[in-house]
Amino acid sequence: MRNAGVISGVSVAHDRASVQEIESASSDDVETVVARLLACEGVTEAFSLQTCNRAEAYVVTDDATLGRRALEDFAPDVRDGSVRHMDHEESLRHLMRVASGLESLVLGEDQIIGQLKDAFEAAHDAGSIGPMLEDALMKAIHVGERARNETAINEGAVSLGSAAVRLARSKLGHPVEDARALVVGAGEMGTLAAKALASVDVSELVVANRTVSHAAHLSREIPGITAAAGLDSLGELLADADIVITATSSPDYVVDSAHLEAAGATMLIDIAQPRDVDPAADDVDGVRVHDIDDLETVTDRTAAQREQAAKQVETMIDEEFDRLLAAYKRKRADEAISSMYEAAEHVKRREVSTAISKLEAQGGLTDEQRETVESLADALIGQLLSAPTKSLRDAAGDDDWTTIQTAMRLFDPGFDDYSVPDTATSSSRLGDVAEGGHPEVDGESSEDEIPRRVIEQLSDD
């Protein structure tokens, strides 16, 4: 696969979209999304990222128009104002911002790095990652790691779980330390929520999970968890809890109105994507349901506290962005140059073979004379392609992709359609090849021209 093409991206994220819209855009898993995108006209690579706060997709095409067309139906049920379309450079920069935590609901949060790596691995296993996206994603991950190692962007950072605890503290009406808490889900987000609740010493902390052994394992790992349970007793658990944080990966609602009939005064904070709590549960007397959208106000203070670190990360992204663009330019130029030299090498081998055959028919050649013929051919290639090589590198430096793409088409080393006539000419006109033409015979018979020069060269030996 060539290192040519452009990246197009689309994003439905918390900064523009509601939790319902993000949920709508995340209806399929990563493997399904990339498979569908790869089936679109002109798409050679595809990637999708889905988290609690965002649903995104990226494709590589030779033409940006094809990329936009492939992504048109990514979020068909989401209003236009909630969908952000990104061109090549916007996509590259956005991926770096996402990885560094600048685009997260909780500024600088660490979970996004793992989520990005998992999505990259899933797309790679699905065969949708090529050189363009691999470079972009590896650079984004590198930037994310640098941001956390070299700045204070995640110093004191809160997770969605701890943001939910802050929300509970501000809305509960009594000290959170006196509350009985329930976490539904024992995965990554459930673990973060349980740790956040345990850190404030709630009076009781239960973790419920579909697989009880996972909840039990979590209870052994986190001091402060008082019990582990399954979801078959969810109604009773909800009735006993003051604060409930739901964070499962279930595609369906886990908590509905029926579960809350005996709940009484209960605060539910749903940080799952898709949502765990049926929105109708908010109509049950005494029950208050909050979702990710409600965490925005809680995290505003965190963003303000890390403003200086965010500026440092922005500068870092600018530097890494320039390096990535420069790397893409070098690869594209090198690809075109490689194709040009490969085309010339093919012609050289054929014409040297023809010349040597003619010379041997005239009396034989020594090994030294064969080397002279080869050296002459190599010298011709080097001299003839020196100027085009410089022009291609200059074109890459000037963002002149038209010249690069033209060169790659002209020098594509697919020689099935280029055969040598039976009366093969001995002169290949590498100058014509370098300009995109085919070898031609014009003026003096080229069948005689190079052999004569070769003989003169050999006679000097």
Question: How would you describe this protein?
Answer:
This protein has helices at 19-25, 30-38, 64-71, 88-100, 111-125, 131-150, 160-171, 188-199, 212-221, 234-240, 296-305, 307-361, 367-397, 401-410, 430-434, 446-460; strands spanning 6-13, 45-50, 54-61, 84-86, 180-184, 204-208, 227-229, 243-246, 266-270, 287-290. The chain has 461 residues and is an alpha/beta fold. It folds into 3 domains: 6-156, Glutamyl-tRNA reductase, N-terminal domain (Beta Polymerase, domain 2, 2-Layer Sandwich); 160-303, Rossmann fold; 332-460, no CATH class. It has a 6-stranded parallel sheet with strand order 7-6-5-8-9-10, with helices on both faces. The chain starts with 5 loop residues before the first strand and ends with a helix. Residues 413-461 have low confidence and may be disordered.
Give the proportion of residues in helices. 40-55%
CATH superfamily of the largest domain: Glutamyl-tRNA reductase, N-terminal domain
Overall radius of gyration = 32 Å
CATH C-level class of the largest domain is Alpha Beta
User: How many alpha or pi helices?
Assistant: 16
Which CATH architecture of the largest domain? 2-Layer Sandwich
Name the overall outline.
elongated
The span between the termini is 46 Å
Say what the CATH topology of the largest domain is: Beta Polymerase, domain 2
Number of strands: 10
Encode the helix/strand succession as letters. Answer: EHHEEHEHHHHEHEHEHEEEHHHHHH
Given as residue ranges, the uncertain stretches (5+ residues, pLDDT < 50) are 413-461
Provide the structure class.
Answer: alpha/beta
- The portion of residues forming beta strands comes to 5-15%
Mean pLDDT equals 83
Strand order of the largest sheet: 7-6-5-8-9-10
Count of the separate structural domains: 3
Largest beta sheet, briefly?
6 strands, parallel
Domain Quinate/shikimate 5-dehydrogenase/glutamyl-tRNA reductase: 167-298
EC number: 1.2.1.70
GO molecular function: glutamyl-tRNA reductase activity; NADP binding
Family: Belongs to the glutamyl-tRNA reductase family.
